[in-house]
Amino acid sequence: PHRWVNPEFHGWWCGRGFSINVDVASGKLMQLEVFLRHFYASYHPYYNDNQPLIHPQPAGIAVTDSALRFVGWHAITILRVTLDPNSVMRVYFYNPNNDSGQNWGDDIQVSTSGNSERFGEASLPFEEFASRLYIFHYDPLEPGQFALVKSEELQRVIDRIHRSWGASRLPELND
User: Which whole number is the average pLDDT over 58-73?
Assistant: First the structure.
């Protein structure tokens, strides 16, 4: 649906691959570790052979409030991923609603200045951003290195998802 809500985010520059971690029919989380491993391998410079993002890429985040309650799905654009002045890997993104300086709970505070943000950018450390991501585009010709992504790092992200927007979306044990 983001293609119709924010058509200016989508064009020839978008990665042809598409990944989602929520089953549209049930609203339940699906293949979370695979989804996150794919995101890391596609976007994190340590796992994608240090390939910079050439063109902005549309993505979807699950917005939460400061009490970790799910607020809604939101379209943003990933602009770049790089180390900040403190050597923290950050995702820099554009939020079209201009409400980027938010507290999303679980000590996740969206930054709009002080971490090398450019005009109009917001940013989060990579793990924190990944914990709110539910849709992203990628280049299927640049798969990155899935196997190098550390399970411990992914588990920290999964734990954040389970504590927040994913708490009511856990799949049934028999699924």
Answer: 94
